[in-house]
């Protein structure tokens, strides 16, 4: 799996030119959900890499997901798509999701215009693209189903990969869904389970203790104490307790938008990881905090029988010093900052599945999923021990330097795809694999 020095140098400098396809805004002219209908199209961006391609090789379509497609370039350069392309003489494409990056159907974003932002329309984009695209400079017809198209997606895009293969089996040859939520829920407190198990226990126990005490104040409807508690964080303007609770949870993350990197953004590769979560916990558990900070631990002890709120001062100080400046002077209770409950506002908080993957329990490998699970060579599944949220999608130029569990995951994906490609004919059933990750 090791690459030559020439190959490494070339991949390191590789850049991609954006191309577009005229994509229908509305793929479902008879569905009343999208009325009034439109026959218009929009320019959907894509990028491709034909470095390893030989005619007859497979096409790997990386589903861009909820971000600018340019942020996915590493998957063509050194990540999972590059790994599979090199192993199978394939060609890789990144397709930018509608309404992200520069793939906007409209110049504005009214409620009616956003009606076309659905998984149903997005999955139809994938199928239309595979059946109609012509790549500049590639002297071969690559459209599906005459060419084998294999999808890859992680997280939301993993769910869209699963839907694409299921809904359009006549188009797609196979798909790899990594950390893919395949169940939609309104509330998802299980998001925090991996952090409870695997996060630094002095940090997590401090936060649990503080939140338990705050919950008791809410249960007792102690409005004076609640207001005092919020003021310690500089968040007394958040009159709705839901806004306040979500705001002080931001450093941990959660199943919502959040303004800093969190547990979910941890990664095995130093190129893609973030230390924000560790910095947060280090601040919460700082044993050398100044007296003015540590005294805050006792500021609410009269509500808890004299018991201190361990590390409350550190926690509140972190929120004031790190989160509140993100508002850049905007009112705390505005949607430009941390308010969401005022119906006259639109939510506008800026953002960026194993035992340690926070989305595990909405995926194929959920502990709540029905049994037995079906497994075969054409429909395999794989849990990556010791990993996080779709960590298999990332690669580095020196594959031999990857952690052993990531190397083995990549080798397994190569073996699986090669088994698929050995099929003598394009069968009506499709090949599919769920990749998930967990911590022993």
TrEMBL record:
Keywords: Glycoprotein, Hydrolase, Protease, Signal
SUPFAM superfamilies named in the record: alpha/beta-Hydrolases (SSF53474)
InterPro entries named in the record: AB_hydrolase_fold, Peptidase_S28
Record GO biological process: proteolysis
GO molecular function: dipeptidyl-peptidase activity; serine-type exopeptidase activity
Protein family: Belongs to the peptidase S28 family.
Name of the protein this chain belongs to: Extracelular serine carboxypeptidase
The organism of origin for this protein: Sclerotinia sclerotiorum (strain ATCC 18683 / 1980 / Ss-1)
